[in-house]
Amino acid sequence: MAKITLDNLAHSYLANPTSEDDYALKELNHVWNDGEAYALLGASGCGKSTLLNIISGLLKPSRGRILFNDQDVTDAATAERNIAQVFQFPVVYDTMTVRDNLAFPLRNRGRDEAYVAERVQEIARMIGMEAELDRKARGLTADAKQKISLGRGMVRKEVNALLFDEPLTVIDPHMKWELRTQLKSLHHEFGHTMIYVTHDQTEALTFADKVVVMYDGRVVQIGTPQELFETPAHTFVGYFIGSPGMNVIPATIEGNVANVNGSRVPLSQAFGKLDGKVEIGVRPEYATLSASEGLPVKVRRVEDVGRHKIIRAEFFGNDINIIADEGAAIGADMNRVVFDPAHINVYANDWRVEGEAA
C-alpha cells in the first residue's frame, strides 16, 4: 500500500502551453493517505483519466512530481510502481481460460502454484465466476470479460495501489451493485490504497472513503459523501452531487441576510462584503413548500418518484427544485418556499465562503 503525494502536478497535451487554459490538468497539491479508498468523480473531459494515467505511469506529467510513500516515482515505469490497473473496457487473453487469466499476474511474479490456485479460487468466488474457471475467455460476454479484468486487478495482495478507470461501464446494473460491494469488502479486508474513476455519483459515493470531485482540470473538493452533500466547496459540487442537485440562486449578502430580488432570506452565519458573482446554494431537501410562509414561487409541475416528490418551480426567474415527502399533500395555495437557514451555503465566484456566527 502507498501514500500518494501529488506535488505541483500539472499536465498539458500541448508541446508549449502558454496559459492555464492550455492545461488539461491544472496544478495539484494533494496527499492521499495510505490505505484509503478514493473516487475521482466528474464529468467527461474534466481530467480524471489523465490524473489516473499519471499515477499509474502511463503518462508523464508536464511538470511536478508524484511520490509513493515519499519516494519520487515521476520517471518510474508502470511496472516499477507495483500497481494494478483495471480499464474501462475488458483487457483479457482470449486464448487463455478464466483460471489462467486470473493466475497470470501471480505466475508472472513467480508465486508458487499452491498459492496461485488458492488465490484464484478466492477471486473467482468474489466475481461470481467459479463455474467458468476452465472456459476460454474468447467465448464469454463483454461483462464476463470485464469481471475477469477486475479479478486480475484484485488478485495480488501486495500492490501499492489498485486503480480503476470506469471499470463497470459494460457491466449490467445488478452486477454493478454486487461488484461495488465486493470491491468495498476487499478494501476493508486488505487495506489497499484504491483510486476509482467514475462519472457516476452513486458509484463514487457508495465505494469511496473520500470522493475527489474534479471540474475543468481541477480538484475542487475532497471529502466524505456527507461533506460533499452538506457543504459543497464549489457550486459544481453542489450541482453534480445530489439528484436533483443544489439550487444556486444569485443574491447579495448583507451580514446574516441574503437579498434575492429585493426579498430577504435569513442566514445562520454573518458575512462581510463579497465581490464578484455572489450566490446562495440550497439543497432541495432543505427547501419547504408552504401556503403561508416564505417567499413566492410558481410551481410548474410535481414529479412523484416513489420515495418522495420533486417540485419543479420558478423562483424570481430561477429554476429551483423542492423535495417533499411522498405522502405530503401539495395544494394549489402552496405557492411560497422556505429555506432552512442552517443549510444555506454562500458562494463568491463559485467558491464557498465561510461565515461567522451571527
From TrEMBL:
<dbReference type="InterPro" id="IPR003593">
    <property type="entry name" value="AAA+_ATPase"/>
</dbReference>
<dbReference type="InterPro" id="IPR040582">
    <property type="entry name" value="OB_MalK-like"/>
</dbReference>
<dbReference type="InterPro" id="IPR003439">
    <property type="entry name" value="ABC_transporter-like_ATP-bd"/>
</dbReference>
<comment type="similarity">
    <text>Belongs to the ABC transporter superfamily.</text>
</comment>
<keyword id="KW-0813">Transport</keyword>
<dbReference type="InterPro" id="IPR012340">
    <property type="entry name" value="NA-bd_OB-fold"/>
</dbReference>
<keyword id="KW-0472">Membrane</keyword>
<dbReference type="GO" id="GO:0005524">
    <property type="term" value="F:ATP binding"/>
</dbReference>
<keyword id="KW-0547">Nucleotide-binding</keyword>
<dbReference type="InterPro" id="IPR008995">
    <property type="entry name" value="Mo/tungstate-bd_C_term_dom"/>
</dbReference>
<dbReference type="InterPro" id="IPR015853">
    <property type="entry name" value="ABC_transpr_FbpC"/>
</dbReference>
<keyword id="KW-1003">Cell membrane</keyword>
<dbReference type="Pfam" id="PF17912">
    <property type="entry name" value="OB_MalK"/>
</dbReference>
<dbReference type="Pfam" id="PF00005">
    <property type="entry name" value="ABC_tran"/>
</dbReference>
<dbReference type="InterPro" id="IPR027417">
    <property type="entry name" value="P-loop_NTPase"/>
</dbReference>
<protein>
    <submittedName>
        <fullName>ABC transporter ATP-binding protein</fullName>
    </submittedName>
</protein>
<dbReference type="InterPro" id="IPR047641">
    <property type="entry name" value="ABC_transpr_MalK/UgpC-like"/>
</dbReference>
<keyword id="KW-0067">ATP-binding</keyword>
<feature type="domain" description="ABC transporter">
    <location>
        <begin position="4"/>
        <end position="241"/>
    </location>
</feature>
